[in-house]
Amino acid sequence: MNLAQGAFAGGQWIWIAGFAVGCLLASRRLIHWFQLESYQFPGYFRTIRRQGGKAWLPGGILFAGTLAGALLLLWAGNLSAGGALPVLCGILSALLPALIGLLLWKSARRQPEKKKLAFTPRVKRLIVISLLVWILLLWGWSALAGIVFPAEKQPALNLAARTAFALLLPLWMALGGLIAWPVEKGISEMYFRDAQRILREHPDLIRIGITGSWGKTSVKFILGTLLSERFPTLVTPASFNTPMGVTKVIRTQLEPGHRVFVAEMGARHVGDIREMCRLVHPEIGILTSVGPQHLDTFHTQERVTRTKYELMEAIPGDGSCFFADDGGIVFGLWEKTDKPKTLAGMNAERDDVWAEELRVSPEGSRFLLCTREEKIPCETALLGELNIRNIVLSAAVCRKLGMTGKEIARGIRNLQPVEHRLELKRNPGGITVLDDAFNSNIRGAEQAFRTLRGFPGKRIVVTPGMVELGDMEIDMNREFGRKMADCCDEAILVGRKRSEAISEGLREAGFPADQIHPVGTLAEAAELLKTAASPGDTILFENDLPDNYSEE
Question: Model's pTM, two decimal places?
């Protein structure tokens, strides 16, 4: 057996290491999806099912490329029984899978990504652990292949059996994540306890928790702006709403001078909010909304409701609970709460804090902020009734903390639109853009549609619809289309398969079929807008899908 064959023989660690590196490099997209799904296995496997071609193709390419190249090198090495050629072929055989993997890595990196793969310490640990695990697996896999197909007798079958390891890359990545999980759990708990210690060293810090199916990020930033008129306030940035995200903020940003800490609390599973409260121990809880979000993990609305209410269950008896009056689920939770509580909304008859005389224009909004004691004239650049409801809810908390009407009104006037949440943008070409791309739910979308209706010129909606709604997704997107129909003149639907239900809803509501334009990607939508939109028109971008939901 010459060295070209020997490179694939059992115990050839150089080839095993090279092939493991090739597998890792070919798995870039899998690593990215795992990160986008917050390293949760159910979400990762749902993405694998949804993106089957992208998931399995890199491993297939690595298998086919390595096998074909290795067979060629094996043939070349057999041309000479001695000399340098067999040695060179053996070296190239070991390097080949890594080279193919590198090409696959570069190809995946060149694909457009809305949220880039971040090489965090956790990703780096996942890569190292996966590589070590795969090397051990490949050793066993190669040994088994050598028994079934001895290299001396069946070199081609031996090569095929060994390189077939690459065909199961999505499963090997999951295995690497599973083995890394105890390590990550231990590290997370260490940081978690350190953040708890830091909070204990700030006994006078006012701690506020915010949760809801939607609106929590907007309320967080609104509340942070208002509170800053009086208090040094730390607000968790962007969408930092997981235990580890909030832990990082506490450990790196909380300072002795802060008087208020506002933590957004996200959830995708029952118990997630309870875990957040174990960290923050909030004395003030804010519930913005409860609705059909993340049903692919919660499965039922009742589980969503129970999880969101975990925040109010964690508020101490002398704390305060604030509820957005939705006239539905949240209102029902307010009714059953026996702790100090406040209801905020647009209903003067039952709310403790409310808004009235609301006037919305493309320039912003004006309204009266009302309590039983006073009415405060307010103005803001924020658009839409939903934003006003968020402001009223935030103002209710500020009143509880002793802020004056003047301070609150000044804070409301200083509010800036939250990025990608019904953000008004003036295009130099005379086209107005309403950017509501961060997220979408049926209630928020309806508010965005109402806002769009008040703008002049042709009105165009660009949307992929809604996701993570489980079995309700098709029906909800059909309803989404029906609600869109009377607010726009053209609909550009991103994702031809996903948007079929939206198209059905639009047509059911009488929307002209020739004004419905399904496209494959957001880039295609942008190209279409170059000819569809003119100066004076308004474009609403409603929702944007993460990379793991792309159909292209």
Answer: 0.76
